[in-house]
Amino acid sequence: MIDPARFDQARDRIAAAGFTPEIQSKIALVLSAAKSGNLMFHANLQWMPNLGVVQQFIISQSARELEAVTLLARTTHWASDPKLAMEANRIVAPLVAAWSQIMLPPGPMLNPQAAYRGISLGHAQLARIRLLAVIPENADPFDPFVVALGRIEQENGRMLQTQIRLLKSVGEDIPLAEREALVEQDQELVDAVFSEFLAWLAAP
Amino acid sequence: MPTVQFGHQQVHYELAGEPGRPVITFLNGLTQNANLWKSYAEYFVPRGYRVLAYDMLGQGRSSKPIIDIPLADHADMLARLLDELKIDKTHLASISFGGIIALDFAIRHGKRQHSLVAMSTFAELTPQLEFLGAVMTQGLTDVGLPYLQSMLYPMNMSSAWIAANRARIPAMKRAGYIGNDGYAMQNLMESFVAFKPLTPDLHKIKVPTLIMNGEFDFFTPRECHEVIRSKIANSRLVIVQHAYHAFTLEMPAVTMRQIEVFLDQVSTGNWKGDQSVWIANDDPTAAEPWLPIAGDWMRAVQVAAPAIVPAARRPPRTTAKTSVKVPAKTAVAAAGKTATRKKTS
Asked: Which value does ipTM take for this structure?
């Protein structure tokens, strides 16, 4: 579990400084990197044969993740400091590495284990990267960046249903405890990244 | 907060009071956590008890299984937690979702209990509860966890409480949002899909059982508690005046007094489990904690006999005959009494 104090510290920092270009850039860089991994995965997986009704939810998730990344790119007041991009890359590197591994040839479309891992990592990202709690009460609710964060988080909850249903139904021949352990590894990975990201947000 | 590890899962708990004293274990409802029983520990520990509260799997700081969590696992996990803490027997006090777990525990692990307090809970899904549960799950999946949180305040608390705490609610919601996970909440709610009614097994509960229901609880209304009362021979139902679903939070002083009186009666051998129905005294300092109930406790209104118009003031009869039949007075109304419900067993 992520220490609740991390959320408080990030929120307090934003309350004091406001959504500066630096803070907005930090959020947009890390969030976009994570979402790009899930987007890449779903853009590939949607071509998998015999998906049945699941296919339309995968197509939808691919489109919505693209929308989220576009929203962030367009609503963010970008800071020009290149060190922010370097630090964001460092923080998010474990996620980028995990997605890269999933996308290795032959790709998730032809590799069921990679497909399962992608669903699991997507679940962890959509469930655990939550920024509503760092938006301070004094933030302008009509600020486009704040509105985008709210919309993205609400959409995360809806998209997550695809991963929830798939994780419950795929690999039922494997004991539940084993599947839980596999999926929990990805949650721990995401928690570690997100926790460090919150500390970075809280830093002056 | 101490933690016990069970294989891949960990359970966070709080245990207050000296070893060797009788233990009261508290089980909370959905979106709650062990910390909400802190004031209960502060009340009961100085009165000679040891108080155990813990986050059930899927809640608070305990593990939140990602794929699934069968409902029966919760009662089994409680048994394992008691083993780990070397607690042979406990009093069990529970609310809402925790109440179902406590009933299940009492049915399957009853030998490990001194007594049971079941508050704002149910043993089977009534059609109303089933539909409410479906709507809550839909709110969670289609709109999100903040929506479910917003929905639960008016379902759980009175207007007076909401008005008094309006300014604090956003901070409380934020803390709940950080501490809970939508998928974990969804797993807990969806575990009811495979829920088999506990009603056929309620008769197996032999320990003294205090059932408590808020007067205005429309989430788990009287009919849910009536099922439990009618099937557990060693029980009593106490209705908490003016209370809604989450009266443990809204009216802690009244609730603590009721539990304290009950536990005293159990420990001194003065408990009478006769399936009778009582009203909790609004005043937790009053000498008489339980007041007798008048009328039908299943009704929200009490029907009195119709006023009889004096014969002298009746309008004169017309000679024309009518074919309209006047319904006969009901037996209750004719007797001039308020209806009462017979005990069912």
From this structure: 0.94
Residue with tokens 């089977």: B124
**Cα–Cα distance, B54 to A1 (Å, whole number):** 16
Angstrom distance (rounded) from CA B245 to CA B222: 11
What's the domain range around B213? 3-292
* CB within 8 Å: B68 and A130: no
Residue B142 has its nearest CB partner, among A132, A158, A168, at: A158
- Which structural domain, as residue segments, surrounds residue A60? 4-202
Contact A4 B179 (CB under 8 A): yes
Whole-number pLDDT of residue A105: 95
Q: Mutation target for B interface from A164, A176, A179: give the one with most B CBs within 10 A.
A: A164
The shortest C-alpha distance from A96 to chain B (Å) reads: 22
Q: Is the CB of B67 less than 8 angstroms away from the CB of A1?
A: no
| Chain A residues 78-107 with a CB less than 8 Å from chain B | none
Kindly report the number of other CB atoms within 10 A of residue B51's CB atom.
Answer: 23
For residue A81, give how far its alpha carbon lies from the nearest alpha carbon of chain B (Å).
31
Q: Name the phi and psi angles at B96, rounded to 5.
A: 55, -120
Task: Tell me whether A157 touches chain B (CB under 8 Å).
Answer: yes
C-alpha to C-alpha distance for B342 and A68, rounded to whole angstroms: 61
Gap from B67 CA to chain A (nearest CA, Å): 6
Contact A200, A26 (CB under 8 A): yes
3-state DSSP assignment of residue A108: coil
Please list every residue in chain B whose beta carbon sits closer than 8 Å to the beta carbon of residue A133.
174, 177-178
Q: What is the CATH number of the domain that holds B20?
A: 3.40.50.1820
C-beta separation of A45 from A18 below 8 A: no
Cβ atoms of residues A1 and B33 within 8 Å: no
Cα–Cα distance, A102 to B116 (Å, whole number): 51
- The whole-number pLDDT of residue B317 equals 59
Question: Rounded to 5 degrees, what are φ and ψ at B340?
Answer: -125, 155
| Residue whose structure tokens are 């409480």 | B161
Nearest chain B CA: its distance from A82 CA (Å): 31
Tally Cβ neighbours within 10 Å of residue A142: 7
Distances (CA, A) of B323 to B10, B314, B320, B326, B327: 75, 20, 10, 10, 12
User: What tokens were used for B315?
Assistant: 């309008």
pLDDT per position as a tens digit, B123-158: 999 999 999 999 999 999 999 999 999 999 999 999
The token pair that represents B279 in the structure block: 């009203």
Q: Which of B61, B67, B183 sits opposite A176 (nearest CB)?
A: B67
* Total number of domains constituting chain B: 1
**Separation of alpha carbons B50 and B195, rounded Å:** 32
State pLDDT tens for residues B306-340: 887 666 666 655 554 444 444 444 343 333 333 44
Structural domains counted in chain A: 1
Q: What are the residues facing B237 on neighbouring strands?
A: B211, B277
Say yes or no for a CB contact (<8 Å) between B8 and A158. no
pLDDT beneath 70, residues of chain A: none
Flag if B68 and A168 touch (Cβ within 8 Å): yes
